[in-house]
Each structure stands twice: as C-alpha cells, then as structure tokens.
Fold these 2 entries.
Entry 1:
Amino acid sequence: MVWSVLWISARVLVFTSLLVPGSGRVLNEGEKCGGGIRDTCDSGLICQPIERHPILFFAEGVCSRGVGCNCSEVECPPWRRFCHSRIVTDPCGCCEHCPKRKGEVCGGPSWRYGNCDSDLVCAVVVGLEPVTPPQLGVCKAVPKHLKKIFPVHLCPVQNGCNVHVGTCDCYTDQACDASFSYSTYEACNKVLMADWMYDPDESKPIEPAQPMPPCMEWRCIVQGCECVCKMMPCTYIKQLYEPECCKILKESGCNNTSCPEIPPPSCPADSFITQPHSEPGQCCPNISAMCTCDFQTCPPKPDYCPLGELPEVVKKGNGHPGTCCDRYECVKQNFN
C-alpha cells in the first residue's frame, strides 16, 4: 500500500511539472504581440495586426479589444442547450451562442446579432467586404477563389484545458470556436487526480453525490395572447421556442400577433433572400428579408481559353445583387 501511494505521488509530481501552463508572459492591452513575440495576449484580447498580412496570426500586432467592441451595450442571446454545431463566441468576446447559419443576420453593434458557423463568413449585406461593427451582416458561404476578399475575423484569446491521452493539455487559442472542457489547469488536474487516486481494490466509503444544479433553459409559453419567454426548467412540459410559440398565437387568431405582411423581395439569379430576424420573445421581425449576393454562384477565373486568347474581366463585380461577380471572357490578344 505504501509503495502504491509513493508511486502515485511520484506520477503526480512528474505530470504537474510537465503540465503547468508555459511561463510565457501574458500581454496587456496596448502591448505588442504576434510576429516573433512568443508571449500571448490576455484572455479576451485580440492580437490586432498593425498591417494587413496574408497570415494574420503571425503578423506583428497590438493586443486590443477589437474594432467597435463594447460589451456593455450587448445583451447576450438566450442560452440554448442544443446547437446544430459547436458553440462560438463573437470576435468581440462578449457572448457565447449557437452559431448563425447561412442567410441569418450577424454582426451589428459589438456583434450583438452573433457570429457565423465556422464554414461561413459574416459579410456585409451589399458589398465586397467582411462586417465591421456596427455594420449589420449576413452569414454566407464563400468559395475558395474569393476567400482573400473576406479575411477571417480575428477572435479573442481564450485559455483553457482539455484532457488528452490521460494528461491535462492546456493551451491558448485565438479562435471563435475554441472548445475547452476546463477553464483552468487546476480544474482539469482535479479531475485527473481523482481518477489516479481511485483504487478499485480498496474499500472506500462512497461519498454522497453532490446535487446537480437544476437544468434551466430559455423557453416560451403561450399566456393569453402573448409569448412569454424566460429561463425555465428543461423538463417543463411546454417546451417551445419563439417560432413555435408565435405560430400557435397566429393560428389562434390573436389580434396582437398579426404582423404586417411584407412580401419577400424578388432577387436576381446571383443572390438569395436572407432570413428575417426577430428579437428574442418577439413574434414580428424587426429586420426584414433582403436580397444579398450568393458568392457560391461566382465562377473562378477561367483556366483555359482558345489559342491566342486570354481570360480578362469584362465586368467587375461589386457585391450588389445583379452584379455580384466578376464576369470573364476569353479575349483575343494582339501580340504584334
């Protein structure tokens, strides 16, 4: 038994010495970062490049809160227990939320309308640029040949740990979809120590299980002619979200749920209709559906032309529905 305890203690000391997070200095707001600097910005800050660089992560920059970020003006969206994808944060680092899908609004003042899924970009509704707060944007899929027009938004630094191959893997990630199981090394190590100290051959008194906090989630119920949305127990019998709740009210004929009928716009072939947006708990949209460019329809520059001809842009795209994409033609060249 004594040798068993000594062996476990030795393992704990070795792993602790290996797993404590690196001794690199944590940089405060305004200090230089990136480039050849190995230190990292403090949690919640962004390494904002001084100059645009094709590989933003390695560009020299300054630790900052991000452009147009003021988390005090943002009310985070209601918490959802289930998301269609992994949880994301916004580039300001204000809120964690389910990622927005293609055609849903994003951006806004301090990113109050949320951030997109990892395979989408938050682009301006009309134009050829990514969103910069307080601009309203739309989540879009962008083909590879247009990626340089829409650089990835810089995300705040996040620190955390995950259990990997029986050890606590602690690291820093500047990503909007970083997923850590533990916020600190201590929290991660506590779980590992509990596993290591467990000896199935020893009879130990079973400790009483700690009571789990009740599961609460944003839910809606129909009360009279209103959708009442608030945090409720996850087992609540009427588990509705805003769309279902509003549908019940409209079908019941409640007068105060009759939203003004706004016909969807007619969009050109190179664009699509965005999803209307309603504030949490509201039945009527406060942001109507709009036409916005579908960049997946934009063809790349032709890689083949007949002999003596080269591909040239005959009409430059500007990101406006109807003229979203560059139009190429093979043009005969005069080599004299």
Entry 2:
Amino acid sequence: MQIALAAAIVLGWEFGGADEFFFSKPSDIFARIVQWFAHGTIWEHLRVTLTEAALALLIGTAAGLVLGFVLARFRFLAAVLDPFIKVLNALPRVVLAPIFLLWFGLGIWSKVAFGVTLVFFIVFFNTYQGVREVEQVLVDNARMLGAAEGQLVRHVLLPSALGWIFSSLHVSVGFAIVGAVVGEYLGASAGVGYLIAQAEGTFDTTGVFAGMFVLSAVVLLVDSTVGRLERRLLRWKLEGS
C-alpha cells in the first residue's frame, strides 16, 4: 500500500500538468539526482551535511540524555532549573542561526551548534518524562536488593526509559539534518543546503527538489537504522508484550 500510494503521488505529479517553473517533474528531478551522483557533484556536499548532522545528533542526544536523567532523579534541581529550561526552549531557533554564524563562522561548527539546539530539547524532555514514569515499585525493589545509583540507572531506569528515548531519536534524526541544512542555507561554502540555496538563486526548481529528495532519502535510511537498533535493544519488551 505504501508503494502504491507513492506511485500514485509520483504519477499524479508527473502527468498532472503543473507549471514546471514552480513544480519540476519527478522524471527531471530523478535525472538530476542521477547526474549529481554520476558526476560526483553531490558527494562532497552530502559528506559535509551528514558530518554536521551526525555531530549535532551525537552532542544533542548525549547532553539531553545526561541532563534528562539528572533532573529526573533530583527533583529539587529540576524545580530550580524548570523556568530557565522553558525559556531556552521557547527561543525561536531560526533567530539563533545567524548568531551562531557570528560566533563560530561559516565552518561546520555553526551548523552543529544550531542542530544541537533542535535535538537537545527533544531528547531531554523525552528522557526526563521516561525516567519520571518508571514504576516506583521497580526502583524500590532494586534499592532493597542493594543497587547503587549507577546500577539503578543501568538496570532499571535506562531500560524502562528506552522507549521514550528512541521515540525522541526518530524525531531528532530529521531535526539534526534540518539544523545542518538551515545553517548551510544561511551561510556556507559546501553542503546540500548550500547546493539548494545555489539552485534557488538561479531559479533552478529541479535542483531545489533534487536536493530535498536526496535529504529525504537520507533521513529515511538513518531512521530505518534507528528502528532496527530499537527493535534489537527492546526485544525483551516486545517479547514480553
């Protein structure tokens, strides 16, 4: 059904008679993508964007996991920092992108910093909620058996919160790439976002859609990898349900 729906959308787009100045045909988009890969044009741009997105995902996820666990375990600290976290989360991220360009320049780190701001809060709030919702009976039983805080995190809290964490990762993958592309769009010398901006500047609709399709394919591929990892790590939960 998914393949049939995708085919219907592509065929309707191809033969729908839309103005090609605004909506390039799928056949032209596919031809452009093939040309990029055949000539090697896309590889360096894709490498830059994926490097930025991967660093943003790793740093944002690590920071969100650590702070989420810490604040979920220390309620007083969570209450103190709560308004500050809400204020930071409410800041419009697009406004931060030009500031990061001033701070870190046109290199990859301005894009990484912007991507971290998108990933961090998604992972943090899911981790925080996941740890808070662990059944208190499990925690009390583990403590009765002599579990230290590190053992409690490893054997009780982390496994119980994995569903929430992976839920945030599925969303964070897309946001990490969005952060990299938006940063490149505002100022860069390489990257898929830079490639799209160049195509848009010359009214090359085919190039814009081709860049978007390449990024969409990358997101689906990475999300599929995260899904396989989730099924592997949560096999015990699926078998018990």
